[in-house]
Amino acid sequence: MLLVLAALAAAPPPVVVASVAELDDALDAGAPIVTLRAGTYVLDHPLELHDVVLRGAGEVTIDVSAIVLPDPTPILDCAGGSTPFSPVVPAAALVVSGATTVENIHFVGLNLPLITYIASTASPCAGAARARHRAVIRKCTFTSAPDAFAVYDVSLGNLGACSCESSWEVTLADDDFDGALWGAFIENQYSNAGARVVATLVRNRMAGMITALAVEGTAVGDGGRVTGHATGNVYHDSLIGVALLGGSDTEGPSHGGSHGVVDWRSVGERFEDDVIGLSVQAGRRHTDGRSGPPAPGQVSAGNRAQVWMWAPVFSGNVLHDAEFFGSGTEEPGDASLEDPVGWPANQVSPGVLAGGNLVELMMFARPVFRDGIGKVVFRAHAADACVFEKFPTPILPDPDGDSCPDVSLDELRHPADTPDFGNRVVIAGDAAAFRALHPDLDEYPPASYFGFVWPGR
To answer: What is the pTM of this model?
Structure first.
């Protein structure tokens, strides 16, 4: 008891601040709780938050438009390489680690070379063999002007965990994300098998983005895992509402992401007025048919996306309410008009395949399709030909569509049936029961897609 009292007496007290200078002093002193008085705080430098609660009292705005970054350095992937799209350090207004909470703050002013408002540390293990982190973002709002080129509102998970075991618990609750390229990015990026994330998302609103929520088991790495529970969130007016990816490369090109797992449970979520409401792809590859084949190392193989959905609500989505692809190719360019295959995620070279990718749809219960028909598609492999050419995004607000002048909306809605290249979609149950339970779908997967799936394997 005496030891406990002594430790409490030695701990820095909570602090209330009213200026950036006072905020810096409180963080430097290790204050466990820092409360910001109502007002606007204009940052001219990034903040590092470690084992701290940062909360706003009243209406609090953090403006990051004046931040001046030192020369950023690329984060190398686990193979020691980098690409033009590699993450950089520092590139976030707030860098979080340890057990950190940020709540009741409005963030504005994000612009390049800043990449995100709040991001995980790029040194998750700091030389140790193991590390655990917890990030809670609650009752915050993130606003980005269309011309500000904000990349992410928040980017949380493992970054650069190549040779250690690093786990993150991420909670987003009652937040409002508006206008970035990606609202929330939860991932294991440039990390290997010891990287784990457990995410909880509750009652968030994400709108006006390329992808409102992106989740990746492994991006440019091998063996990461993300387990998520999402309840009551709204994904609105974006190119893609939610993207769940088992493993992926990045643009660049880069090394692929292999043996990643996304295990995701969705309850009562709304997908509204998106081009694609939900996109599930076990393996994903970025390429461009106009520039030739991707590099052989740009392979994403052996990934798995396991999805449970209860009572989703779909309305106003243009192409797909939901799509489930074992393997997907992004932006295959004009070559895809003649060849709808593109390059499968697990294809090393023509005729040479690495391990296949697997989507397991464990539950798709009580969906509501307010447009009267469920635009849901299932493919072992698909290339999203022309989607980025036909629909405006924050990066390309007025696409000319030159690569896809004659492609109809119906052709985009119903991707061509292609060989599976060893990739699979498995739906728990049997085809007849699925059709009976979902009489309002635009199309139905073949009977070969159905079977028994062991939960959690």
So the answer is: 0.94
Measured CA to CA, the distance from residue 422 to residue 218 in angstroms comes to 19
Three-state SS string across the chain, please?
Answer: CHHHHHHHHHCCCCEEECCHHHHHHHHHCCCCEEEECCEEEECCCCEEEECCEEEECCCEEEECCCCCCCCCEECCCCCCCCCCCCCEECCEEEEEECEEEEECCEEECCCCCCCEEEEECCCCCCCCCEEEEEEEEECCEEECCCCCCCCEEEEEEEECCCCCEEEEEEEEECCEEECCCEEEEEEEECCCCCEEEEEEEECCEEECCCEEEEEEEEECEECCEEEEEEECCEEECCCEEEEEEEEECCCCCCCCEECCEEEEEEECCEEECCCEEEEEEEEEEECCHHHCCCCCCCCCCCCEEEEEEECCEEECCCCEEEEEEEEEEECCHHHHHCCCCCCCCCEEECCEECCCCEEEEEEEECCEECCCCECEEEEEEEECCCHHHHCCCCCCCCCCCCCCCCCCHHHHHCCCCCCCCCCEEEEECCHHHHHHHCCCECCCCCHHHEECCCCCC
CATH number at 34-451:
2.160.20
Q: Hey, where are the domains in the chain?
A: 34-451
- The dihedral built from the CA positions of residue 413, 416, 419 and 421, taken in this order, carries a sign that is negative
Q: Does residue 264 contact residue 312 with C-beta atoms inside 8 Å? A: no
CA-closest candidate to residue 448, choices 435, 433, 436, 430? 430
pLDDT tens per residue across all 457 residues of the chain: 555 455 445 568 899 999 999 999 999 999 999 999 999 999 999 999 999 999 999 999 999 999 988 777 888 888 777 776 678 877 899 999 999 999 999 999 988 778 899 999 988 888 888 999 999 999 999 998 656 666 889 999 999 888 899 999 999 999 999 988 889 999 999 999 999 999 999 999 999 888 999 999 999 999 999 999 999 999 999 999 999 999 998 866 678 899 999 999 999 999 999 999 999 999 998 876 555 677 767 899 999 999 999 999 999 999 999 999 999 987 655 444 556 778 899 999 888 999 999 999 999 999 999 999 999 999 999 987 667 667 766 555 666 555 666 677 787 888 888 899 999 999 999 999 999 999 999 999 999 999 866 555 4
Q: Which residues contact 257 (CB under 8 A, 6 or more apart)?
A: 216, 217, 218, 219, 220, 221, 222, 224, 245, 246, 247, 248, 249, 284, 300, 303
